[in-house]
Amino acid sequence: MMDIEKSRGVEAEGASVDSDTHGSVALPIEGMTCASCVAHVEGALSSLEGVTQVNINLATEKAIIELDSDMVSLGDLVDVVQDVGYDVATKTESLPIEGMTCASCVAHVEKALVETPGVLSVSVNLATEKATVVYVPTVTGLSDFRRAVSDVGYEVLSTVEEQAEDELSREVRKMQVARRRMLLAWLFTGPITLWMLPEMLVGVAWPNPTVFKLGMLLLAAPVLFWVGRHVYVSAYKSSIHGLPNMDALIALGTGASFLSGVATFFAPIPSYAGVSAMIMAFHLTGRYVEASAKGRASQAIRKLLELGAKTARILVDGSEREVHIDQVIAGDVMVIRPGEKIPTDGVVVEGESTVDESMATGESMPVTRRPGDEVIGATVNQDGLLKVRATRVGKDTFLAQVVRLVEQAQGTKVPIQAFADRVTAVFVPIVVGIAVLTFLAWFLFPGALLPVTEWASGFLPWVDPDLGRFTLAMVTTISVLVIACPCALGLATPTALMVGSGIGAENGILIRSGEAIQAMRDVRVVVFDKTGTLTKGEPGVTDQILSPGPESSRDDLLRWTASVEMGSEHPLGKAIVCRAEELGLLLGKLGDFEAVRGKGVLGIVDSRDVLVGSRTLLEEHGISVSMLEDDMRRLENEGKTTMLVAVGGELMGVVAVADTLKDDSVAAVRELKSLGLRTIMLTGDNQRTAQAIARLVGIDEVLAEVLPGEKLDEIKRLQEELNPGSRPVEGTRRQGGLVAMVGDGINDAPALTQADIGIAIGTGTDIAIEAADITLVRGDLSGVVSAVKLSRATFNKVVQGLFWAFFYNVVMIPLAILGLMHPVLAEIAMAMSSITVVTNANLLRRVDIRPTQR
Q1: Which of 320, 475, 661, 676 has the highest local Cβ count within 10 Å?
Q2: Share of the chain above pLDDT 70, in %
Q3: Which of 529, 659, 685, 748 is catalytic?
Q4: How confident is the model at residue 258 (pLDDT cuts 50, 70, 90)?
Q5: pTM, whole model, 2 decimals?
């Protein structure tokens, strides 16, 4: 019995990566501080057999790892990260388990949890009826644990953490830690600065040199070795693995400055102990501002996660029961009252209401939802009671897919980042080498460099050419160490991608990768599918023409036509009935209905014979249609299907039906042209219909009667036309530009894949998110315009960030070598470089990506 009550721990080292991730896994990495750290972790993970690609985002501190082998375990990935001096952020959860009665129950629960992908260890205690699970939160979570435990016959109750609702996100907590460190650093550094002023201004060390030097050491020590201890720990971990990072440069610079304060008691050199504290304080200040800016940049994911409902009200045996969202399963019927969030994706089974779907589509106007209509989880029910049957839960919901796609986009890189990555991989060793050479140059050959400092001393008060050669060598070396900054290089791309992908998600534009953002800049041709892309993909009444003769109205014509089409199952007939219902027309009573294959329909409506169909049908009943021939020919030339209508043996008119244009198609095509893009229609429809639609929408080039398999060949032909010769290596820019294909994401999948940029038109939960590089949730063409503008704006921010990062280092490091930078000013400049890059990326939020032409 004692064994039963003991806590049992089980390691899950062999847990393989979740196959649901489609060959990829996201790991939160702890300890990275600069681009060098990113390069080191990427290199270590890439060396693992079975890993095909690694992308690490410094801003989110997350690694996206692509795998081609089921044999790669999560434990292997964690071990590799730890081997190079970093760590994988894990979470420990205490789960209350209901239903365990013996050691066998414990074993079943443990086994179920251990086999859950993403779990590192499990400890189940029968006495407390709790399971302690250590896991990687980006791979698995509470919903997976509940499902695993439920599958073996037990239940996970609500945790204390869920009930308390942790209010602080990871980014906010990090920002608070950074703020606390900054304030503590300045608590000691403030007095140091004030104490140093008399010496700096009048050369007096108050109250005497010995006390002054000792005071500097005593005040600086806690700043460096207590508040800034994590900097030294990070520097040590990275250095012992032969992969020094940015913290190593700070540690070397502040350490040398502090040691000068100790050495000043034994040698005639000035003390820079106070300066070391100022360097660290400014460094921690920069980290705080950077954490704040990164937090703002990463708020897209947080906003999306916050959109989801926490609970659901489901019907159980006819009564309502409120449960945690993780306990909802497909098939449950949920009750949603006005003002409540729809808990998960589903289908309306009862009720009618308007739903605010702006969070999914970016469309501000609410939409009406009736029985049979699909609804999206996390959207808001506005004014009616709805009963919704859950269809997708957990990882399968639309919101979960969007979050996963945004995370994926944020974890990728643009090809332009490749050069920056090569630089950062060797940046710190090169800077250390430059620092050593700087020290030797100033110590051995001061005469070659002193003229510059003598000239600068006339207008730069911190430059003192009268210092000894060792002091000058030390000061310039420290300046070189602290001014070099690979952080800005590492933050330029991921921060811009984070902001850009977040803005896209908020506006219903889902971007799969950084490569898509860069490639979109070079698009010169946009190819459109017709049905479902330029048009609504469903027939609608477009024209009603009355024949000369007895007085009647268009409403009368439509009412008679719809009355007889009530008996038809044909899509064109349904379109007419739908239009009549929209107008509120009162339909007649139908009798003796008959459908004549290939010709039309006929019946008796309100005791009068009504015929609706082709010329042949009416002529067979002795009705002449010659008076409407010209109108019919014109309508047919416009790609419309015409239906003649006769009532009581007299020709009444013609009704035309066609697949109608989306409301914004014309404006979107016009604006794409104004952006310098060439537009082409690619469709399997007949030439006459395609030309008619193209004229209406404003597209000059039409490729019609193209079979689905031939669409891919047409895309290839356009690519060859723009860029004669072989297809270039992925990521390189083509001289003639790229081809984008806009389609529905399913039928056009081969062409979307062949195109340099595939843009999938989707609507609501039917969206094919995985079908293209960019997916437009709302389903209208104005999204293409917004996607072009967003991609161009995001890529511009990437380029600007990389430019300023390189420019800063190219300019500042030589100034430090020449002795023109005080160590404290160097640290301020270093911090400002990262802050500038991140702030510039956040300015992307001010860009207006909305179409200007309506």
Answers
A1: 475
A2: 87
A3: 529
A4: very high
A5: 0.69
